[in-house]
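Re: duplicated header lines in exported C-alpha coordinates

Our pipeline writes sequence and C-alpha coordinates for each protein into one text file. With two proteins the header for the second block appears twice in some exports. Here is an export where it did not happen, for reference. First protein block:
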Amino acid sequence: MYHVVVGVDDETERALRCAEEVVGLPGGPEEKSVTLIHAFVDNPNGASATQVQSVREAADYLEENGIEYQIEESSGDPADAIVTTADREDANLILVGGRKRSPAGKALFGSVTQSVILGAERPVMVTGVE
Protein backbone atom coordinates (compact mmCIF):
# COMPACT_ATOMS: atom_id res chain seq x y z
CA MET A 1 0.00 0.00 0.00
CA TYR A 2 1.34 3.43 -0.99
CA HIS A 3 0.51 5.95 1.73
CA VAL A 4 0.28 9.69 1.03
CA VAL A 5 -0.11 12.45 3.61
CA VAL A 6 -1.86 15.46 2.09
CA GLY A 7 -1.69 18.84 3.79
CA VAL A 8 -5.03 20.60 3.34
CA ASP A 9 -5.52 24.28 4.09
CA ASP A 10 -8.73 26.30 3.74
CA GLU A 11 -8.42 26.72 -0.04
CA THR A 12 -10.73 24.26 -1.82
CA GLU A 13 -9.02 24.52 -5.22
CA ARG A 14 -5.64 23.54 -3.75
CA ALA A 15 -7.22 20.66 -1.82
CA LEU A 16 -8.92 19.31 -4.93
CA ARG A 17 -5.73 19.67 -6.95
CA CYS A 18 -3.92 17.58 -4.34
CA ALA A 19 -6.68 14.93 -4.40
CA GLU A 20 -6.47 14.82 -8.20
CA GLU A 21 -2.72 14.27 -8.00
CA VAL A 22 -3.23 11.33 -5.62
CA VAL A 23 -5.69 9.76 -8.07
CA GLY A 24 -3.16 10.30 -10.86
CA LEU A 25 -0.32 8.53 -9.04
CA PRO A 26 0.69 5.17 -10.52
CA GLY A 27 -1.33 2.17 -9.40
CA GLY A 28 -4.99 1.52 -8.83
CA PRO A 29 -7.13 2.98 -6.07
CA GLU A 30 -6.80 -0.17 -3.99
CA GLU A 31 -3.02 0.38 -3.88
CA LYS A 32 -3.25 3.86 -2.29
CA SER A 33 -4.26 5.25 1.06
CA VAL A 34 -4.35 8.88 2.13
CA THR A 35 -4.26 10.87 5.33
CA LEU A 36 -5.72 14.35 4.91
CA ILE A 37 -4.26 16.62 7.59
CA HIS A 38 -5.69 20.03 8.41
CA ALA A 39 -3.96 22.19 11.01
CA PHE A 40 -6.01 24.87 12.71
CA VAL A 41 -3.95 27.98 13.34
CA ASP A 42 -6.92 29.71 14.93
CA ASN A 43 -10.08 27.81 15.82
CA PRO A 44 -12.22 29.90 18.17
CA ASN A 45 -15.41 27.98 17.31
CA GLY A 46 -13.90 24.56 18.00
CA ALA A 47 -14.57 23.23 14.49
CA SER A 48 -13.28 19.83 13.45
CA ALA A 49 -11.40 19.14 10.23
CA THR A 50 -14.44 17.32 8.82
CA GLN A 51 -16.32 20.62 8.96
CA VAL A 52 -13.79 22.43 6.75
CA GLN A 53 -15.09 22.65 3.17
CA SER A 54 -11.71 22.06 1.54
CA VAL A 55 -11.19 18.89 3.59
CA ARG A 56 -14.70 17.61 2.84
CA GLU A 57 -14.33 18.20 -0.89
CA ALA A 58 -10.93 16.51 -1.07
CA ALA A 59 -12.32 13.56 0.92
CA ASP A 60 -15.36 13.33 -1.37
CA TYR A 61 -13.13 13.32 -4.45
CA LEU A 62 -10.95 10.54 -3.04
CA GLU A 63 -14.02 8.52 -2.08
CA GLU A 64 -15.55 8.96 -5.56
CA ASN A 65 -12.33 7.54 -6.99
CA GLY A 66 -12.24 4.56 -4.61
CA ILE A 67 -9.24 5.67 -2.55
CA GLU A 68 -9.17 4.88 1.16
CA TYR A 69 -8.59 7.93 3.34
CA GLN A 70 -8.65 9.20 6.88
CA ILE A 71 -8.88 12.74 8.20
CA GLU A 72 -6.57 14.10 10.89
CA GLU A 73 -6.54 17.48 12.54
CA SER A 74 -4.03 19.41 14.52
CA SER A 75 -3.51 22.87 15.91
CA GLY A 76 -0.51 25.12 15.60
CA ASP A 77 2.07 25.23 12.86
CA PRO A 78 0.74 23.54 9.69
CA ALA A 79 4.18 22.50 8.41
CA ASP A 80 5.03 20.79 11.70
CA ALA A 81 1.65 19.03 11.70
CA ILE A 82 2.15 17.74 8.15
CA VAL A 83 5.70 16.48 8.75
CA THR A 84 4.82 14.96 12.14
CA THR A 85 1.82 13.15 10.66
CA ALA A 86 3.90 11.83 7.77
CA ASP A 87 6.57 10.58 10.16
CA ARG A 88 4.06 8.97 12.51
CA GLU A 89 2.27 7.26 9.62
CA ASP A 90 5.54 6.35 7.87
CA ALA A 91 4.10 7.86 4.68
CA ASN A 92 5.69 7.18 1.33
CA LEU A 93 4.96 10.72 0.13
CA ILE A 94 3.87 14.13 1.40
CA LEU A 95 1.69 16.13 -0.97
CA VAL A 96 1.04 19.85 -0.55
CA GLY A 97 -0.49 22.53 -2.74
CA GLY A 98 1.77 25.35 -3.82
CA ARG A 99 0.84 28.93 -4.51
CA LYS A 100 2.50 31.97 -5.99
CA ARG A 101 4.06 34.39 -3.56
CA SER A 102 6.22 37.41 -4.03
CA PRO A 103 9.74 37.27 -2.56
CA ALA A 104 8.64 39.82 0.05
CA GLY A 105 5.59 37.71 0.91
CA LYS A 106 7.79 34.67 1.46
CA ALA A 107 10.16 36.62 3.69
CA LEU A 108 7.39 38.21 5.76
CA PHE A 109 4.95 35.34 6.11
CA GLY A 110 7.02 32.23 5.53
CA SER A 111 5.82 29.33 3.48
CA VAL A 112 4.25 26.14 4.72
CA THR A 113 5.31 24.39 1.53
CA GLN A 114 8.91 25.54 1.91
CA SER A 115 8.97 24.49 5.57
CA VAL A 116 7.59 21.05 4.71
CA ILE A 117 10.16 20.56 1.96
CA LEU A 118 13.00 21.57 4.26
CA GLY A 119 11.71 19.67 7.30
CA ALA A 120 10.65 16.39 5.75
CA GLU A 121 12.81 13.29 5.60
CA ARG A 122 10.71 11.73 2.86
CA PRO A 123 9.66 12.77 -0.65
CA VAL A 124 7.49 15.87 -0.96
CA MET A 125 5.37 16.58 -4.02
CA VAL A 126 4.05 20.10 -4.65
CA THR A 127 1.05 20.57 -6.92
CA GLY A 128 0.91 23.41 -9.44
CA VAL A 129 0.72 26.96 -8.24
CA GLU A 130 -2.18 29.32 -8.79
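Second protein block, exported in the same file:
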Amino acid sequence: MIYRLTFKLFLSCILLFVAGCSTSVKSTSQDPNIIALKTVLEHQFTGPDQEFIEGTDNIEKLEQYYEKRYQPYFTEERYNSFIATTAFQYVLVAYNNGKEIKVEKVDVEKEEDAYTFKVTVWYGKKDGDQESAEVTGRVKFNEEGKITNIQYLNDDGLSENLSN
Protein backbone atom coordinates (compact mmCIF):
# COMPACT_ATOMS: atom_id res chain seq x y z
CA MET A 1 0.00 0.00 0.00
CA ILE A 2 2.74 2.47 0.97
CA TYR A 3 4.72 1.40 -2.10
CA ARG A 4 1.80 2.26 -4.45
CA LEU A 5 1.21 5.61 -2.78
CA THR A 6 4.93 6.48 -3.00
CA PHE A 7 5.04 5.38 -6.62
CA LYS A 8 1.98 7.51 -7.52
CA LEU A 9 3.46 10.52 -5.73
CA PHE A 10 6.79 10.04 -7.52
CA LEU A 11 5.06 9.70 -10.90
CA SER A 12 2.98 12.83 -10.25
CA CYS A 13 6.13 14.83 -9.42
CA ILE A 14 7.80 13.71 -12.63
CA LEU A 15 4.75 14.67 -14.71
CA LEU A 16 4.57 18.11 -13.09
CA PHE A 17 8.28 18.66 -13.67
CA VAL A 18 8.07 17.67 -17.36
CA ALA A 19 4.96 19.80 -17.89
CA GLY A 20 6.66 22.78 -16.27
CA CYS A 21 9.79 22.41 -18.41
CA SER A 22 7.88 22.08 -21.66
CA THR A 23 5.79 25.17 -20.88
CA SER A 24 8.83 27.38 -20.31
CA VAL A 25 10.53 26.17 -23.48
CA LYS A 26 7.41 26.76 -25.53
CA SER A 27 6.89 30.31 -24.23
CA THR A 28 10.52 31.27 -24.93
CA SER A 29 10.50 29.82 -28.45
CA GLN A 30 7.27 31.72 -29.23
CA ASP A 31 8.65 35.07 -28.03
CA PRO A 32 8.27 37.37 -31.08
CA ASN A 33 11.43 39.28 -30.12
CA ILE A 34 13.47 36.07 -30.19
CA ILE A 35 11.99 35.12 -33.55
CA ALA A 36 12.82 38.59 -34.93
CA LEU A 37 16.35 38.51 -33.54
CA LYS A 38 17.05 35.07 -34.98
CA THR A 39 15.82 36.25 -38.38
CA VAL A 40 18.09 39.33 -38.32
CA LEU A 41 21.11 37.26 -37.26
CA GLU A 42 20.50 34.62 -39.92
CA HIS A 43 20.33 37.35 -42.57
CA GLN A 44 23.46 39.02 -41.30
CA PHE A 45 25.57 35.88 -41.04
CA THR A 46 24.47 34.02 -44.19
CA GLY A 47 25.65 34.85 -47.68
CA PRO A 48 26.40 36.18 -50.06
CA ASP A 49 23.29 35.19 -51.98
CA GLN A 50 22.56 36.09 -55.60
CA GLU A 51 20.39 39.08 -54.70
CA PHE A 52 23.18 40.56 -52.58
CA ILE A 53 25.74 39.98 -55.34
CA GLU A 54 23.50 41.77 -57.88
CA GLY A 55 23.10 44.63 -55.41
CA THR A 56 26.84 45.23 -55.16
CA ASP A 57 26.69 46.72 -58.67
CA ASN A 58 23.40 48.60 -58.15
CA ILE A 59 22.91 50.72 -55.04
CA GLU A 60 19.12 50.84 -55.48
CA LYS A 61 18.91 47.03 -55.52
CA LEU A 62 21.19 46.86 -52.48
CA GLU A 63 18.99 49.32 -50.57
CA GLN A 64 15.92 47.22 -51.43
CA TYR A 65 17.77 44.09 -50.34
CA TYR A 66 18.51 45.63 -46.92
CA GLU A 67 15.04 47.13 -46.50
CA LYS A 68 13.39 43.77 -47.13
CA ARG A 69 15.65 41.90 -44.70
CA TYR A 70 16.12 44.36 -41.85
CA GLN A 71 13.72 47.31 -41.83
CA PRO A 72 10.71 45.45 -40.34
CA TYR A 73 12.77 44.54 -37.25
CA PHE A 74 14.33 47.90 -36.31
CA THR A 75 13.16 51.31 -35.20
CA GLU A 76 13.72 53.82 -38.00
CA GLU A 77 16.66 55.46 -36.24
CA ARG A 78 18.36 52.18 -35.39
CA TYR A 79 17.72 50.77 -38.88
CA ASN A 80 19.58 53.67 -40.49
CA SER A 81 22.47 53.28 -38.07
CA PHE A 82 22.58 49.51 -38.52
CA ILE A 83 22.63 49.78 -42.32
CA ALA A 84 25.32 52.47 -42.25
CA THR A 85 27.66 50.59 -39.92
CA THR A 86 26.92 46.92 -39.39
CA ALA A 87 24.50 45.21 -41.79
CA PHE A 88 26.99 44.60 -44.58
CA GLN A 89 30.03 44.02 -42.39
CA TYR A 90 30.28 40.24 -42.59
CA VAL A 91 28.63 39.33 -45.91
CA LEU A 92 30.42 42.06 -47.86
CA VAL A 93 33.83 41.16 -46.46
CA ALA A 94 33.17 37.48 -47.21
CA TYR A 95 32.07 38.33 -50.75
CA ASN A 96 35.09 40.56 -51.40
CA ASN A 97 37.41 37.75 -50.34
CA GLY A 98 35.72 34.89 -52.20
CA LYS A 99 34.24 33.37 -49.05
CA GLU A 100 30.83 32.40 -47.80
CA ILE A 101 29.30 32.47 -44.34
CA LYS A 102 26.40 30.51 -42.96
CA VAL A 103 24.62 30.35 -39.62
CA GLU A 104 24.89 26.96 -37.99
CA LYS A 105 23.08 27.73 -34.74
CA VAL A 106 21.54 30.68 -32.89
CA ASP A 107 20.99 30.67 -29.13
CA VAL A 108 19.05 33.52 -27.53
CA GLU A 109 18.37 34.11 -23.85
CA LYS A 110 16.02 36.69 -22.37
CA GLU A 111 17.42 38.77 -19.55
CA GLU A 112 15.68 41.38 -17.46
CA ASP A 113 15.83 44.25 -19.97
CA ALA A 114 17.54 42.73 -23.01
CA TYR A 115 18.36 39.56 -24.91
CA THR A 116 21.78 37.99 -25.27
CA PHE A 117 22.71 35.87 -28.25
CA LYS A 118 25.35 33.44 -29.41
CA VAL A 119 25.61 32.62 -33.13
CA THR A 120 27.75 29.79 -34.46
CA VAL A 121 28.88 30.75 -37.96
CA TRP A 122 30.62 28.56 -40.54
CA TYR A 123 32.82 30.39 -43.04
CA GLY A 124 35.39 29.73 -45.74
CA LYS A 125 35.94 29.41 -49.47
CA LYS A 126 32.94 28.07 -51.37
CA ASP A 127 34.42 24.63 -52.08
CA GLY A 128 37.16 24.70 -49.44
CA ASP A 129 37.56 23.92 -45.79
CA GLN A 130 35.09 25.54 -43.44
CA GLU A 131 35.88 26.98 -40.04
CA SER A 132 33.55 28.19 -37.33
CA ALA A 133 33.33 31.25 -35.14
CA GLU A 134 31.03 32.16 -32.29
CA VAL A 135 29.58 35.67 -32.32
CA THR A 136 28.05 36.99 -29.12
CA GLY A 137 26.03 40.09 -28.44
CA ARG A 138 23.17 41.84 -26.75
CA VAL A 139 19.93 43.33 -28.12
CA LYS A 140 17.22 45.60 -26.74
CA PHE A 141 13.67 45.93 -28.06
CA ASN A 142 11.03 48.60 -27.53
CA GLU A 143 7.40 47.93 -26.58
CA GLU A 144 6.44 47.54 -30.26
CA GLY A 145 8.95 44.72 -30.70
CA LYS A 146 11.44 46.78 -32.73
CA ILE A 147 15.20 46.59 -32.13
CA THR A 148 16.46 49.76 -30.47
CA ASN A 149 20.03 48.59 -29.87
CA ILE A 150 22.16 45.72 -31.10
CA GLN A 151 25.67 45.31 -29.79
CA TYR A 152 28.22 42.73 -30.86
CA LEU A 153 30.42 41.82 -27.91
CA ASN A 154 32.81 39.34 -29.54
CA ASP A 155 33.03 37.86 -33.02
CA ASP A 156 35.72 35.27 -32.21
CA GLY A 157 37.99 36.64 -34.95
CA LEU A 158 35.35 36.27 -37.68
CA SER A 159 35.91 39.74 -39.19
CA GLU A 160 39.65 39.23 -39.33
CA ASN A 161 39.42 35.69 -40.71
CA LEU A 162 37.00 36.75 -43.44
CA SER A 163 39.47 39.46 -44.49
CA ASN A 164 42.38 37.02 -44.92
